Amino acid sequence: MLKSNLKVGIDVPWVTSWTEEPVVGVRPCPTVNGQPALVQVQNAGYGKPQYSRNHLGRQRQTVLHMLCPMCGEPTPPDDRWTQVARLTPAGVLRRGGRAAGLTREIEDRRVVLDAGSIAPLHRACVEQSLKHCPHLKIDPNVNVMPFPARWAVLPLLIEASPVIEAGVVVGAIAVITFLQLIGVTETIDRDWRFKKPLAVQAVRG
Questions:
Q1: Cβ(176)–Cβ(32) below 8 Å
Q2: First-residue to last-residue Cα distance in the chain
Q3: Nearest C-alpha neighbor of 125 from the set 85, 91, 50, 75
Q4: pLDDT for res 205
Q5: Please, what sign has the CA dihedral across residues 16, 11, 200, 138?
Q6: Concatenated DSSP letters for 118-143?
Q7: Stretch 56-64: mean pLDDT, rounded?
Q8: pLDDT for the residue numbered 201
Q9: 20-52: buried (b, 16+ CB within 10 Å) or exposed (e) per residue?
Q10: Residue 160 to residue 146: CA distance in whole angstroms
């Protein structure tokens, strides 16, 4: 196993998965308070970077602790920026089936910022990634915006294989993969019922 000459958090985003970080299955994971989650080996910097895939554990950490996906350092409230998040009324997000678990405290007419699985970055890291990332260079949805002061975190779930205990199948379980981040703005859209759900963006993972 050889360590790459590429520097994690400088040449390669901190959240990026590497070829020496295989997925090892479902485990209780501390990143989600011990809930069942899909987990990977932690071996950043070894093998080759997989730029189109985020590391499961590091992605969850970026969202839960507001860590910059590029450098891995905390983002202060006055320096949090998104690149490809999209503004939409919460009701439209619910109608499109992309806001399971979003509490009703966030009313349907409230405009939210759907960041998908990407936590906000420092402004300096935004500029660096836009300059060097081949995916962002060709992404027509790039729109740099400040991230709201309020947000919600929603688990993105898959159904795991049936659980077997003492030779008895007790059923499948819901397993957390990535975490979805929803910024909550102060804007109200009174015409939200007439809006169509946005096309689903692929989650890199």
A1: yes
A2: 23
A3: 75
A4: 46
A5: negative
A6: ---B-HHHHHHHHHH-HHHHT-TT--
A7: 97
A8: 46
A9: bbeeeebeebebbeeebbbbbeebbbebebeee
A10: 36
Q: Which residues contact 49 (CB under 8 A, 6 or more apart)?
A: 4, 6, 12, 16, 17, 18, 19
Question: Which is more confident, 204 or 155?
Answer: 155
Helix (H) or strand (E) segment spanning residue 6: none
pTM of this structure: 0.86
What is the predicted pLDDT for the residue at 187?
A: 93
Report pLDDT for 142.
Answer: 92
What residue spans of 13-104 are helical by DSSP H?
56-65, 90-95
- Cα gap 109→91, rounded to integer Å: 6
Neighbours of 190 (CB within 10 A): 8
Q: Which residues 6+ apart lie within 8 Å of 26 measured at CB? A: 36, 37, 38, 39, 160, 173, 175
Dist. CA 198–CA 181, nearest whole Å: 16
User: Which CA distances in Å does 6 have to 33, 132, 197?
Assistant: 32, 14, 40
**pLDDT of 155 over the 90 cut:** yes
- Residue 170: predicted pLDDT: 59
Average pLDDT score, the chain: 89
Which pLDDT value is given to residue 5? 95
Q: How far apart are CA 166 and CA 153, in angstroms?
A: 35
CB 117 within 8 A of CB 144: no
